[in-house]
Amino acid sequence: KILLTTVFDHLRNQLQGIAITVQDVTREMELNEAKSHFISNVSHELRTPLFNIKSFIETLYEYGHSLSEEQKRDFLETANKETDRLTRLVNDVLDISRLESGKPYPLTPTALSAVVEQTLRAHRLTAKDKEIYLSAVMEPDLPDVIGHYDLLLQVLANLVGNALKFTPAGGHVILWAYPWAGRVRVEVSDTGIGIPSEHQDAIFGRFFRVENRVHTLEGTGLGLSIVQNILQKHHTDIQLLSEVGIGSSFWFDLDQA
Ligand code: ADP
């Protein structure tokens, strides 16, 4: 961007010269582009469930009298699921905008074991319903870490949520926490369907979901990008090892308190 500014001498009432400022706005333009891309993706993602819900309501309203009880229940059930999907999307988008708002997230000494235990408690029922063995393996004297309790809880919730979603009945999901190379390593491993190697980078992008999977519609495709964003605030990054049909393992290292 080139800015031209005239320098005017008001006392003598005459033009003294022209100042030229050259500003590199490439980064600004890239950010704007990413933002509008995100907004158009969000709008598209919101429109689909909204359209479905509206169609179901209209059908029930206009043709309800000629539908069987079972058909009506099916319609309502699907509309209810679509409403849940909308709620998840709105929550994820709100999380992202909060994370990117510049609001400070102070990092303080945090009891990682408490974060792990709370994550376990929150997912115990889902694991039981899906007949998946969910457990944690932690060192008895695990050091505290430098982090943000609620954000770390969200990271583990997203990782364990995914692990449970993509692991069939009878499988295992394990949360590990142990000292590693002067830091503390946190790992979520599962014996699920795995991620094809060609998608292993893309899954961290926004709205990316591996197609043709049973649970494609359950997700928003935003979970892992939220995880990555939170971990950046913790000066660390997420790592992944996964093999189709064997399982996946996601891990990251945190500074000790
Ligand atoms: P969501 O789970 O909401 O779709 P994510 O960003 O959390 O979005 O994940 C993106 C995609 O990565 C998922 O749709 C899924 O295809 C794949 N994925 C994530 N975690 C796992 C896992 N533990 N096992 C298999 N696939 C996974």
UniProtKB/TrEMBL annotation:
Q: Any idea where this protein resides? A: Membrane
Q: Which residues form the Histidine kinase domain?
A: 41-257
- This chain belongs to the protein called histidine kinase
Q: Which organism is it from?
A: Gloeomargarita lithophora Alchichica-D10
